[in-house]
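User: Some background: our group keeps a shared notebook of sequences we're curious about, and every so often someone picks one and asks for a predicted structure to add to the entry. Today it's my turn. The entry only has the sequence so far, pasted here. Could you supply the structure so I can complete it?
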Amino acid sequence: MMKYLLNPRLPAPHPSLDFIVTIPAHNEESLIAETLRALLIQTDPAGNPIDPDSFEILLLAHNCTDQTAAAARAAVRGPRPAVHVIEWETTAIDATVGAARKAITELAASRLSSLNKPDGIVATTDADTGVSPEWIFQTRREMKPNISAVAGCIEVDFTGVILTTPAITRYQHDYETYRRLCSELAAKLEPVAHEPGLRHEIHTAASYAVRASIHTEIGGIPSLERGEDIAFHRMILAAGHLVRHSPLVRVSTSGRDCGRVSGGLADALCGWTDCARNDGDYMVESPDVFIRYYSTRSRIRKRLETFHPESIERAARLVADLRFDGFSYREALAILAEQPPVELFMEDLETARQANPLQRPVPFRDAKSYLEQRIRPPVPTLHGELIAFSNTSIR
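Assistant: Of course. Here's the predicted structure to add to the notebook entry:
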């Protein structure tokens, strides 16, 4: 069995360290410098630099055949914050991003443990991703005492991926507006106590942070060929912990057409970019279906505030009304009888929804117009970039 905990010869962690950024990198020579530069200029909202001794970066260049490690070292200016570039060669069976992410996050958790900082933060991002200037500050701020993990929002950078034209720019802006309207309406229809205000639905390794003690408690990130980040998120929910999906914690990730792992964000973007190139109709579920879904979720939440037999029975009937595969009345009743963590059950509902065919699909611009009339919120433009609010980016 493979031992995932790395044992590189690293300097002892600084006593002020409480936040470690982990990055697995495989053949990212062309992008890794920009990724690191964004991390090296972290500030608070007033523009004051974050204490460079309070965080460090662990970069694992695994099975690289290019100059990723050299490019990373060249991008580092000065000793603070500490940037540790580790080169790792593994066998073919272990040469997956899941194995690399497991190894580097276990190293991070062990360094925080050596400082006796169970509430220290182990954060993940990707080698083709640039964090926002306040990423560390906002992650720390969102990690309230009742929160065990913070999932960030992803902006997708299409630079160099699709030919930018005025039509495509309008398409991006319209879709960004549509998703923001959906996010606001979902928050109104289904208020969640630990997710005040706006939230999103994405929880991937491009921006995910967890307390070191929780990481250790659940056994770390699973070593999977794909989907290790989603599996890790589910493990946290299954243990009864709460995750904050904050729109203030933001990263920008590459919108390259060819994803490194099948089923990743790049795959989900293919259909969208095809429509953007041709100014076509990207189909989404009808707004009335969207409204019914989130209204029903809110009613289910209220029933599950207590797991009394009558509440479980009523919740199971509401679930069955959604008509998702695997969630008939009898199936829902059997699941709820086991009293699963509420957030895990709600996540399972969302997974079932994503797996379902679109109900009464409509062009997203029609849906956008309807939601604008219903909500009419001010929607700021975020540099013309598309924002992913769900783990499949867009439905």
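Suggested note for the entry: Residues 377-390 have pLDDT under 50 and may be disordered. The domain at 19-278 is CATH 3.90.550.10 (Spore Coat Polysaccharide Biosynthesis Protein SpsA; Chain A).
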